[in-house]
Structures are given as C-alpha cells and as structure tokens.
Amino acid sequence: MHTVHKSPRVFVSQRAPLDGDADLLVLPIFENDDLADQPAMAPAAGDDVEAARARLEFRGRLYEVYQTTVALASGRTGRVLMVGAGPRALLTDDRLRRVAATAGLAARQRRAPRLMVVHRAVAGIPDGRAAEVLTEGFTLANFEGASFKSSPEVLWLASVELCVPGAAGDLAAHVARGLTMGECSNIARTMANEPGNHLTPRLFAERGAALATEAGLRVDVLDETRIAALNMGMLMGVTRGSHEPPRLLVLEHRPAAAPAHVTLGLIGKGITFDTGGISIKPAENMDKMKDDMSGGAAVIGAMLAIARIGAPIRCIGVVPMSENMPDGLAIKPGDVLTSAEGKTVEIINTDAEGRLVLGDALWYARQLGATHLVDVATLTGACVVALGKSTSGLFGTPPSWVDTVQAASDRAGDRSWPLPVFEDYFDHLKSDIADFTNSGGRPAGAITGALFVKEFSGGLPWVHMDIAGTAWAEETRPYQPKGATGVAVRTLAELALSAAEWAGESGR
Ligand code: BES
Ligand code: MN
Ligand code: ZN
Questions:
Q1: Greatest CA separation found in the chain?
Q2: Spatial distance between the Cα atoms of 93 and 104, rounded to a whole number of angstroms
Q3: Pocket (CB within 6 angstroms of ligand 1)
C-alpha cells in the first residue's frame, strides 16, 4: 500500500496575495462578486473571468472551479484558481470547508503543490474559525483512495499559505486544530478503505493500538480469551463463523484535570467484513461491506484527535472487532445468545450483527465508568432508505443529549438528523423464547436497530448514530473523492472538546 494521506504545512501569513510565489493562488469567488474587499485581485477577475461568466462557464456557483492567470508583483505570471463559494450571504463554515477541499483537490489535479489562499472575510465566520475550516478542507483534500494501484501518480499538497491580513490574535491554534481534525479524519478513511483481507480484526486492533499509543492514549486490546472470560456472548456469536479471532479495542483519554463525575463513552462498530453470515447477503455490492468498520475507525480517529488537542474530560473508546462470515460453526437463525449483561437474544437474521457486537461493547463501556454514551455504526440499510447518503441518522435519549450530539455534528460538517425511538417500536423485537430478537424486519428498520442497542445503554444518556449511508461516497464530488468519508470523526471529537457546554456539575 502506498502513502494515502499527507498533511500539508499550513500557515497564516500577512502577505498580499500578489506578493506570493506559490504554484497556485486560490481565490474563492461568490456569485455576482465584485471583489470589493480584494481590490488587488480585481485584475485577475478581469476580462477573462467576465467572459467566462458571460458564457456561463464560471459564475461563482458553489464548488465550480476556473483557472486563469494574473500578473504577480514579481513580474511573473501566476496561476489563479477561482473556486465558487455560492452567494456570499449563504456562506457557512461548512461550505467554506468544502470550498477549501474543492480547491485542494483541483490543485492536486493541476499538479500544484504549493498554494496561497485568499481569505474572504464574511460576517458570522470569525477569522479563527475560517482558518480552522480552511485548514481542515485542505488537509481532507490531501487524501488518495486508490492506494493499491501499482503505479500511482499522486501529487500531494506540500504547503498552504493562508492570507489573513491583519488577523486579530494568533490563528496558529486554530490552524493546528484544523490540521488535527483533518488528519484524524484521513486516518479513519484510510482504515475504512482497507480491503477485508488486509484489515482483519487482529490487524485493525494492532493499527488502532499503535496509533493510540503514539497519541498518548491508554490502550487495552482484549483478545478472544478475555472476551470469553467476560461472557460477551453476542460478540463471540458473531465471530463464530470466522477463522479470524475477535478483538475488543479499548482506548482511554484521562487528562489530569478531568472532572470526576463525567466520562464520555464512544463505541464504534468494527465489522471488518460483513457477508451477512448464514443469512448471506446478495453478491451485488457485497464488496462494499469492507467498510462495515467505519464506526470503529471513526471512534479511533476521534480518540486520536481528543488526545492530540486535549479534550477536558475523560473519554473512553470501545471498538468491538470481528468478521461476519458463514461457516459450519456460524450462528444460525433461531439460535439464542446470552449477552455479557445477561440479556438473551434470539437470532432471527445473522445479518443483523452490528447491534450484537455493539451491545456487548456498550455494556463494557459502562463497566469502565462511562456516564454518557455515543455509538457510531454502519447499522442498517433502512437508514439509507430514510435519509439517503448525505445525512446520518441520530437516535437517543434524553432529547437534550441528542441535541448536543447533533449540534456537534453540525459544527463538524457531518450532517445528521434525529429519528424517533418511541418505545412501542420495541414490539417488533418481541421473541417467544428469549428477552428479544435481533431483527424487527423491514418496517422502521433503522429505529428497531437503534432500540436493540438502547437495551444495552443501562439508562444512561445515549445516542446512536447510523452512518450506513454517509460512511461511503459512491460518487465523486468536487470536494470529496469516492470511498470512505471519515464521517463522525470530527463529530465525536467536537463533542468531547465542547464538554464544558454539556458536562455540567451533575452530569445529565
Ligand atoms: N452492515 C449492514 C448495514 C448496511 C447496509 C450498511 C447497507 C451499509 C450499507 C448491517 O449489518 C446489516 O446487514 N443490516 C441489516 C439488518 C437487518 C437484517 C435487520 C439490513 O440493514 O438489512
Ligand atoms: Mn449485516
Ligand atoms: Zn454490518
């Protein structure tokens, strides 16, 4: 495998854009832009851009790109990449992040490693926040999915100079945070892109443990013996059909000044390949099921960011890792499993495996002292039907905790939307012989999946994020290549970093 992501050197400078010597000058352009705030750049946006506007080639619409030239102060002719930023009044930090990612990807295509970026100040986005999301966007652009090509022709962004004239205060901390958020997202994307034969549960745990140790997290990798000793019958049930042993990766961030009453527990589904087991999936698109560990990758990526940036609270990450395979020893529909918590589950469909491994992992996070739970999982096709590929499903209780997680996801650029967890939906999981079943069938499939997981939340504040639709991009976008998206990494990190806003005296 080749290098698949590289963080550019990002720095803030006071230089005027035309004084630079970069390979490419990046200039965000709004719709009907008169560049009144960038008089020096007006010549670059002169006749050529007017003509492009007239022939409707480039109008500053969101994520359009247009390349032209400009005379630099040095007398050289510089290349300028105009990037559409949409209507000025509608610019958000989320759009700005994507504008940066669009520019970064376009610059790499144009073989331009050193960028100078013009910052267009807008009301409502402070310079520090702009520097942060721009840095994130350019870092996210420095990711390459085709890591197994034998002769890659990859060009990496080497440096990004952000021109923020007269920037009030020091923006370095914002840039550093943006870099970390972008890098940790790329680490998660790298793991999620990895084929099932390369990233087995054992190697997934090893990779996560190595990265976490380097970031200063405490690490515990539970092997099959310890998992059995804890009676994790659901995780062991899912693993029975596989020749690869399971792992439970546990990461802990415990800052010295952490308040004693609150611990954020992050749990991520880590199925390194989901065939469906005996309830086997159809062949079409089964290859995509190598990304069924995206939730686990997101938890690992988030824990790295939490350690590097230094979240003010104790956080634990728990990732159950397993394959879901059909085999002579595999669990069968009709089997009954006993969870570590003691609750019994009748297996209706062996393809509803994610909720099984999550249940035992949520229980373990509680044993370790978690007071607030968030789990992330590519859990149900039904969630993709409900919300499509752009929005993750949110489920949980109490509503205030769901709101808190949703607000973090908005800040992170990981859009999510709540679906209900009304108790009567639990009727779908009724079993004649066990406490409940693992599948409620097709109706409200995303909700019944969430309600299953809720059974293992022990009454704590809990949110479940279903990323089945958002973890993998099937289409290339100007701001994002096909493949793993790194969704939820920044949401979970944002949540931990903003603990002061939700972890009040009594917890919740
Ligand atoms: N990993 C799948 C969910 C999935 C489907 C993710 C499509 C991404 C794209 C999960 O393990 C699964 O198979 N869920 C079943 C549950 C059903 C059997 C109750 C599903 O969604 O069909
Ligand atoms: Mn499945
Ligand atoms: Zn699955």
A1: 82
A2: 16
A3: 274, 292, 349, 351-354, 378-382, 384, 439, 445, 468
* Residue 146 scores a pLDDT above 90: no
What band does 153 get if pLDDT is binned at 50, 70 and 90?
confident
- Region 132-143: mean pLDDT is 98
Using only C-alpha atoms, the chain has a radius of gyration, in whole angstroms, of 24
Question: What pLDDT, on a 0 to 100 scale, did the predictor assign at position 508?
Answer: 44
**pLDDT band (50, 70, 90) for residue 168:** low
Q: Could you give the CA distance from residue 352 to residue 436 in angstroms, rounded to a whole number?
A: 13
Distances (CA, A) of 162 to 5, 11, 18, 22: 21, 6, 13, 11
Asked whether the predicted pLDDT for residue 169 surpasses 80, the reply is no
Q: Is the pLDDT of residue 50 over 90?
A: no
pLDDT category, 507, cuts 50, 70, 90? very low
Shortest CA distance to 374 belongs to which of 460, 249, 447?
460
* Paired tokens of 6: 């590289």
CA end-to-end span of the chain = 45
| 286 CA distance to ligand 2 middle (Å) | 10
How many angstroms is it from 466 CA to the middle of ligand 1?
10
- The values of phi and psi at residue 43, to 5°, are -60, -40
Ligand 1 binding pocket mutation candidate from 323, 356, 380 (most atoms within 8 A of CB)? 380
Return the residue whose CA atom lies nearest to atom 17 of ligand 1.
Answer: 352
Token look-up 């290349």 returns: 79
User: Amino acid identity, residue 346?
Assistant: E
The three-class DSSP label of residue 23 is coil
